[in-house]
Description:
By secondary structure, this protein is of the alpha/beta class. The protein has twelve helices and ten strands. The radius of gyration is 23 Å and the shape is globular.
Amino acid sequence: MTLRRLLLFLLCAIFITSVDAGAASKRIFVTIGTGGVTGVYYPTGGAISRMINKKFKQYGIKATVESTAGSVYNINAVLSGDLEFGIAQSDRQYQAYHGLAEWKKRGPQKKLRSVFSIHPESITLIASVESGIKSLQDLRGRRVNIGNPGSGQLQNSKDVLEAAGIPLSSIHVEQAKAVEAPSLLQDGRIDAFFYTVGHPNGNIKEATSGRLKVRIIPIEGPGIDALLRRYPYYAKTIIPIKFYPKAENTRDVPSIGVKATFVTSADVDEKVVYAITKEVFDNLEEFKKLHPAYAVLTKEKMLQGLSAPIHKGALRYYREAGLLKYINPALIE
Ligand code: GLU
């Protein structure tokens, strides 16, 4: 190689490296906190990230998904800046914003922002048939998984037990992750477990498809009616049994539930939140095909069930798309 050619080669190499570095510095990486891999949050994080990653050339955003302990973990990770986005139950969003439940000591989490709500989730109580559990009242003295710390369901199980007049001290409490609960039930190491989750999901399919027959237990009764009157975020739901043909039940199961919501922090870049909101809403029909739990979604419904102020990036999109009319004015800053 002549000296001239060598110089030319070196110049080219420097040029290519600097162009590459320029493109890389424009990339924005965001992570979405979800839940256990057999729940609905995990595929939901996947569905949202797919919508935005498709438009990488336009936005330069690369979204990835993390499996986590659930709602409470996600809210805290978003607030601390460890995650940019998280999926969290609507009741947990309410509690964090108002400084209740796990946030009682730390007070109201004013940086929390809502983006939109997603699928409905039902408090799902599932028990082995051989345990003889047929109603909430039969839980006394039994081994019950009420949910892991950091999950959404932990407080839901406590609320339901309290409403049914069953003190925690009267059951053998387990706090395993939802992803482990089906095998614990099938191995006879627990009698029942609670999971607040959208339907259908892999977890309840797994729990109902094993050697032991299992039954989904109704969450109902006068205590539950009182609970519904007391808390604004719980509503009656139905668990369609067609999703779980191997369960012992023959009819749909009444329960109560909340909604999954997509949350972020006031610190997250407006452009990023705008882009994600726009891609999900502009392509809602395509998004809905990504999971059967989204069948009921409409743009209007996706703006209900929120209690933290709407992030300004999302708000910009809702304003442009003429959707402000569906938003509680108290959430518009
Ligand atoms: N609702 C559960 C939680 O907040 C997660 C459900 C799911 O992963 O689909 O922890």
